[in-house]
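Quick one:
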Amino acid sequence: MAKPKIAIIIGTTRATRFGEKAAKWIHAIAAARTDMSVELIDLRDYPMPFFDEVASNLWAPSKNEVAQRWQKKVAEFDGYIFVTAEYNRGVPAVLKNALDYAYPEWNRKPAAYVGYGSVGAARSIEQLRLICVELQMAPTRSGVHIQGADFVAALQQGKDLKELAYLEKNSKTMLDELHWWAGALMAARTSSQMKEGLAVRS
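Output:
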């Protein structure tokens, strides 16, 4: 079976965001592995309006051209790592909007999370896990949380995340889980597609 293809999605678009630093850090760790391929995805490249379609693309094709391009990109992957902040105890609006603009493209694929902020985006990630369940995804148990004094040092003093050895240990656990789920669900999707194909021909 082919290596799972994983998207690392930067979940904020603000000019002063920290997310790009966190995303590049986890990308470097994941890219060094031989059991998955990874691609960095920036929501700045997909400037979608707030959801304004007649329905989810589960029920009706999206009319917005950027949304269509986003859906095609999401569909390329076998799993996802969401790199997210926490805004007022919740998910950044631009990330929630991007999740809402696709549906079948997310289905039956795993999701992992890297959070940053005063509490490592723990509450935002809890919400993300619920959203991902509704999108028929498989959230991983383990995540990475860049928080407290370590986050402040990285944000304000330019501390390199590589200096925080425990974060890399956490990332390995998360990536191992993501790889397992990605492989298992790739096999399951293939099996399901084969059965559906046989059913159509019979």
